[in-house]
């Protein structure tokens, strides 16, 4: 008998994948965790029934959430990743020669351990115990409250705004992010689907724009995520990703490049209208 797994992306739309094998199921204090081997996307991490990442297309998300902000800031020495328990974002962050220390604060330690076991190509920076990486299992919201004028770049690699990720989508959290950044710091957060989460995207863009003089939303095509098109929103105190030369990366990428850095900020008219 064939096994199919469905993520209910909205009340009316679901993405269904054929599963070849269930590799792990468990429950942490925060959420249900599963890893499955799917026919289309390969191994996938699933939290509370929501598809988080897959070995098939993870490079798009992780390259875009990391390299856009890190190549916007001219000298990102101190970097913080909130969330990102699969390890993909921190993997991309530590590739940058300028980065001296990359802190990662993830609330769910079981996600980290499961990812290291079943998604080693994504979590390789955690498996190799990279000297740049400082991993903390704890509450990212509380961590932000305690930080001040510390980071050049903050990357909020969070799950959907439900459960443990809900508090990462509030004006209070963005105020703490602003405080934790240095005077020329910037941050980026994944801000969901421009098709299925329009009220959320509009609210988040407005909340971030209220604090940061430079606020820009950009896009990436990610097949696993709702609608296949995903948003990220960047808030910067000083540097504009559309100004100046984009540096050449000293390492190879599969999705991100200098042309994509510019073009990802070119928003379709319906998104421009949404964010006005």
Describe this structure in words.
The chain is of the alpha/beta class. The protein folds into two domains: 52 residues, Spermidine synthase, tetramerisation domain (Spermidine Synthase, Chain: A, domain 2, Roll); 218 residues, Vaccinia Virus protein VP39 (Rossmann fold). The protein is built from nine helices and twelve strands. The strands form two sheets. The protein has a seven-stranded mixed sheet, sandwiched between helices. Helix 5 packs across helix 6.
Summarize the topology:
Blueprint: E1 3-8, E2 14-27, E3 32-38, E4 42-47, E5 50-54, H1 58-72, E6 78-83, H2 88-93, E7 101-106, H3 109-118, H4 124-127, E8 133-137, H5 140-146, E9 151-157, H6 171-180, E10 181-190, H7 198-209, E11 214-221, E12 229-236, H8 258-263, H9 269-275
Parallel strand pairs: 6-7, 6-9, 7-8, 9-10
Antiparallel strand pairs: 1-2, 2-3, 3-4, 4-5, 10-12, 11-12
Helix pairs in contact: 5-6
Subunit structure: Homodimer or homotetramer.
Protein name: Polyamine aminopropyltransferase
Pfam families: Spermine_synt_N (PF17284), Spermine_synth (PF01564)
Overview in brief:
The chain is α/β, with parallel strands linked by helices. It has helices at 58-72, 88-93, 109-118, 124-127, 140-146, 171-180, 198-209, 258-263, 269-275; strands spanning 3-8, 14-27, 32-38, 42-47, 50-54, 78-83, 101-106, 133-137, 151-157, 181-190, 214-221, 229-236.
